[in-house]
Amino acid sequence: MSNDPTTTRTTSELVVRDLCKSYPTPSGPLHVLKDLSMRLDAGQSVAVVGPSGSGKSTLLQILGTLDRPDSGEFLIAGRAPLELSPRPLAAFRNQNIGFVFQDHHLLPHLNVIENVLVPTLAAGRVDDTRQTKAIELLDAVGLADRRGHLPGQLSGGERERVAIARALLMEPSLILADEPTGNLDRRTAETITRLLLDLQKASGAILVTVTHSEKLAESMDSQMELVDGRLVSL
Ligand SMILES: Nc1ncnc2c1ncn2[C@@H]1O[C@H](COP(=O)(O)OP(=O)(O)OP(=O)(O)O)[C@@H](O)[C@H]1O
Question: Which residues are in the ABC transporter domain (predicted)?
Answer without folding.
Answer: 14-234
